Structures are given as structure tokens and as C-alpha cells.
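Hi U.,

Before I forget, here's the chain from the pilot set. I'm dumping it here mostly so it's searchable later in email.
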Amino acid sequence: MPARTIRVTVRGAFHALTPEQRDALLADAAAHDVAYAAFTADGTMTYDIAARPFFTFRYAATVEQESDIPAVTARAEAAAQQWLGSRGYDFRNLTSQTVDLSLTPLGKRGRREAAR
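Structure:
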């Protein structure tokens, strides 16, 4: 069975930021701009704290079996919580969405390449 590529998106909202925390996020905002969003094994985080208090983490992993997918989701959520907690950021409304790319329908170009 071929490996499955899994993408996990973890979303939430910063909560009760201190002025110092907000300033730190604003200072580092360019590094977390949506233009740099990518699904990676280590995860990437994006936010626009000047506009809204929300953040998004994106993680990618490969699994051999469908039964491994919940563990990938749990690891992504734990990694997001660890990143936030290690910096002292309080958060709420943490949710995640997991997509198995092997089940995603191919677009026109993908169907054309698969037919070759």
C-alpha cells in the first residue's frame, strides 16, 4: 500500500494577550505572513494579529495506514499547543482539520497527468 500524504490544519485564537505579547507578535509578523504558508513536517504558523486574533498552523505527514491518521492529528494539535505554551500565549477555540490527499479529487490537470 502506498504512503498517504496527510495535511493537518490547526486553528485557534489568541486569548488575553498582554501588551508585550502583542508587541512581540507584531514584531515577528512578517515571518508568519500567509505568503509563507506551507504544509511541512515541522509545521508553519501564520497570523495577522494587526487585523484579527486568529492563528493557523499547517502540518504535513505521511502514513502507511488509514488507522494512523488520528495520531497525526493529535501530534499536530500537541505541537501547536506546545509552540503557543512555550511562548506563554494563551489561546482558545483550538480546532483541527485533517485531509488525506489520496482521497482528494484530482483537478483537470491531475486527471490529465494520471491518464498518461
